[in-house]
Write a structure and sequence with these properties.
heterodimer, A: 354 residues, mainly alpha, three-stranded antiparallel β-sheet, 14 helices, 68% helix, 5% strand, B: mainly alpha, two-stranded antiparallel ribbon, 11 helices
Chain lengths: 354, 291
């Protein structure tokens, strides 16, 4: 076992990892101090939890798109599974476990498990396909999940759970509680998500993803991405490694969704549609494929950008779109790339080798 | 008889999907990109047709032509400004740019024409012809006819003209096409022009079927038509035609016999099953990966 040393933390290979952990911790401390001194506007403190959710989902998606190299257009579907599972579990346990922190943890774990199960179910057929066909099937699964959640009715009373599909046939005894209400989604959820839990989830997901990337299995995943045939010929089980990345990605999306769902008193299934999947994909691509630090920074900027542009009112989404196009054009421009590389060299590499 | 009338309605809806899917599949075949902004070109086409008919009082053919001209110009401009600089970039960057263009068009439409829904005027008279107990509305008839005409013209264009041959060459091998003296950039522009022109036709047919115009109008038909293109084998023109028609029929049957709320889920489930059995779609070519 290697001896721990500060120098090792900043070695060329691990520098990116250390920087992203430090960044999250410092940002968390600054935000907490600002919140306790009251210098943070209510608008921004309201954004903190959704921001953490998007970061966790984006880190998960980056594992799938960047590290494993499979375009996934259905990440919001897994968030939806996680969110509605967590909201239902939390609603059901509300009377039994009054402590919100314990309930939050249990609900998130339930959301993660549900999303992981969906990840396995969807991963088996999806990973048989390649390239754009794989992407369209994840898109299709995202749409199917949305459609199914939109038609689910779940409630419970003293006789236990009642479930119905498409039409609301649940007949609850007085005192019963509806957990899911079809297109209306979950209403009356107790808001138990906290920024601290969000920061912890980011740290956990970074920990999982980085450990995977620097392990034998992670190297196998990246080898399969870079050259499928060569990887197969040295004995890497492609479907097994891809499956692992896909399921972990789905689980992280589930955790993100769970935290998101428990942050709002009402949550509609339409929230997790194709646009949400695309939004998270944009964070990943702008942050850099396989680069977790970049993903976090891109997510923070792109979540805050529309809020910062609030003074522009109607034009803000238009500006957002233009910014997106311009960034893509600039980052693919030869002269700009050369300049950026020079800059990166002077800063010392970062996570480029990942 | 119910079955037959559902089938014909399905073919009508499928024809619209097929025309949109042709735009996706042609752009994919030649530029190898998923043009997510295609649905929003449809939306612009719908607004242009709406204003031409409602505010300027133009006759229907003039409105359709105006809509085609505007969409074609829009398609070519977007290609020139946003996609052309990214020819060598990774497909993901192009995808995100297309999404940016899509956001841009939707929000521009919302700013220019507000987000409130506008009611598209009735352009095709109600009623229809009846064959025994079966009646077919004029709208369905016109939609299917248009789709077949578009398909015939496009097939002739691709197979018989010099430009069409150049397009096929580009979709096979861009490098070799350049060496043969084909201006690849021009061919890509022409492909975008044709795809966007078809989007305008689809827009008018779509609005004749569902007479409401709003900024996110193109999103769902766009995704469905994209599905149709993949269904038939993306990059294949007959595939897009077949995929579009099948998708329309499946959607109408799912609505009629199973459940209206779940029709979307059923459509996508069928797509997944088809792709699992034939991983490159119904008429797609299987490209062997070389070592």
């Amino acid at each position: 076992m290697k001896k721990f040393s500060i120098g090792n933390l900043f070695s060329r290979k691990k520098r990116g990892r250390t920087i992203s952990f430090l960044m999250v911790i410092v940002a968390y401390i600054i935000m907490q101090t600002m919140m306790s001194t009251g210098s943070l506007s209510s608008l921004f403190s309201g954004l903190l939890v959704p921001l953490c959710c998007y970061i966790v989902a984006a880190i998960g998606l980056n594992l799938n798109v960047g590290v494993s190299g499979e375009l996934n257009l259905g990440q919001a579907g897994f968030m939806s599974v996680g969110a509605f599972t967590a909201v239902s579990v939390s609603g059901y346990l509300a009377a039994g476990i009054p402590n919100p922190v314990i309930r939050l943890i249990i609900s998130i774990i339930a959301g993660v498990i549900a999303a992981a199960i969906f990840g396995i179910l969807i991963g088996v057929p999806v990973l048989k396909l390649e390239g754009d066909y794989l992407a369209i099937v994840t898109l299709a699964f995202g749409q199917i999940i949305k459609s199914i959640v939109t038609n689910m009715y779940l409630g419970f009373d003293e006789n236990g759970f009642q479930f119905s599909f498409v039409d609301n046939n649940t007949k609850l005894a007085p005192g019963g509680k509806m957990l899911l209400n079809g297109p209306m989604g979950a209403t009356g959820t107790e808001r138990i998500s906290t920024f601290t839990m969000g920061a912890i989830l980011i740290i956990i997901s970074l920990f999982i993803v980085y450990n995977l990337m620097f392990s034998r299995c992670g190297r196998a995943i990246m080898a399969a991405r870079d050259n499928r045939i060569a990887a197969e010929s040295v004995g890497i089980g492609i479907s097994r490694t891809k499956m692992l990345a896909f399921v972990i990605s789905a689980s992280l999306a589930g955790a993100a969704g769970a935290l998101y769902g428990l942050n709002y008193s009402t949550l509609v299934p339409a929230k997790f549609d194709f646009n949400t999947s695309i939004l998270i994909l944009v964070y990943v691509v702008l942050g850099g494929l396989g680069n977790m630090t970049g993903t976090i920074i891109a997510t923070v900027i792109l979540v805050l950008l529309p809020e910062l542009l609030r003074s522009m009112q109607d034009y803000r989404m238009l500006i957002y779109a233009v910014v997106l196009i311009v960034i893509m054009l600039l980052t693919n421009n030869e002269t700009v790339i050369t300049k950026l590389k020079l800059l990166q060299k002077s800063l010392g590499g970062g996570a480029k080798n990942v | 008889m119910d079955f037959l009338s559902y089938l014909i309605n399905g073919l009508g809806l499928g024809s619209v999907y097929a025309i949109i899917a042709l735009g996706y599949t042609m752009v994919y075949g030649i530029a190898k990109m998923l043009n997510f902004a295609h649905g929003d070109v449809i939306m612009i086409g719908a607004y242009v047709a709406f204003f031409a008919l409602n505010n300027f009082g133009l006759p229907l053919p003039a409105a359709v032509i105006l809509s085609i001209v505007v969409c074609t110009a829009l398609g070519v401009t977007v290609e020139r400004l946003a996609y052309k600089p990214l020819r060598q970039a990774s497909s993901l960057s192009v995808l995100i740019t297309a999404i940016g263009v899509s956001y841009f068009l939707q929000n521009a439409a919302q700013l220019l024409w507000s987000s409130s829904t506008k009611v598209f005027p009735t352009i095709i008279p109600n009623g229809g012809i009846s064959l025994g107990a079966l009646s077919i509305s004029y709208l369905t008839l016109i939609t299917i006819t248009t789709c077949v005409l578009v398909m015939i013209c496009l097939t002739l264009f691709i197979n018989r003209t010099k430009t069409g041959r150049a397009m096929r060459a580009c979709s096979e091998d861009k490098g070799a096409s350049t060496l043969m003296g084909i201006n690849v950039n021009r061919i890509i522009s022409i492909t975008f022009a044709i795809g966007s022109g078809l989007a305008a036709i689809a827009a008018v047919l779509l609005c004749a079927t569902y007479p409401s115009v709003f900024p996110t109008l193109g999103a769902m038909p766009g995704i469905k038509a994209f599905t149709a293109a993949v269904f038939g084998g993306i990059g294949s023109i007959p595939g897009a035609f077949l995929g579009g028609l099948l998708l329309g029929v499946i959607e109408i049957f799912a609505k009629a016999y199973i459940s209206t709320q779940l029709s979307d889920a059923i459509v996508f489930a069928v797509l997944i099953i088809v792709l699992l059995i034939k991983p490159t779609g119904l008429l797609g070519k299987r490209v062997r990966e070389k070592v």
